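User: structure tokens for this one?
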Amino acid sequence: MANIPLQRGMWLRHENHVYQVMDFNEHHTGKQRPTVHVALRDIRDGRPVDRTLDDLLPIEEVEHETRQMQYLYARGDCHVFMDSETFEERDIERGQLQGREAFLNEGGEYRVVVLEGKPLSVEIDDIVSLRVDITAPPEHSVGAASNITKEAILENKLEIRVPLFIKSGDVIRVDTRTKSYAGKDHG
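Assistant:
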């Protein structure tokens, strides 16, 4: 694949959308010129998109950067962050957090992807540790004998289901993508 102007991870603009190149590969069919299939991810909503290299030409690379920002507070449908270098406050809309706003801690430092001067998304770890504030008594449990769970309210006010042995004050690991129990934190 000589001289293909693509790299995995690069961002490019195509039909007024910004995509990240996830993967690409070359397909040969007989004596025809090889076709390069490109797997893209829409930066705005994470949707996967497939194109050929010919569809994407000419390649228009888009510059982006990651900046360290501190989460300050929620205001309406926005969350306010402060740039750790410039001390400028920036609003990030709830939709840009991909449903993970419950995992923001006031005063916490986060990596924010900035595209053309505007905050685009906040990087939140897939697994975070949180303290259990309140757990339901075992008689409120649900499930089959081998997988019985009960309700728990975490320090961030998120309500999830946890195994019966988890008690108030325990620190557990939570999957931020599914908002589900991912194990007890032994750290």
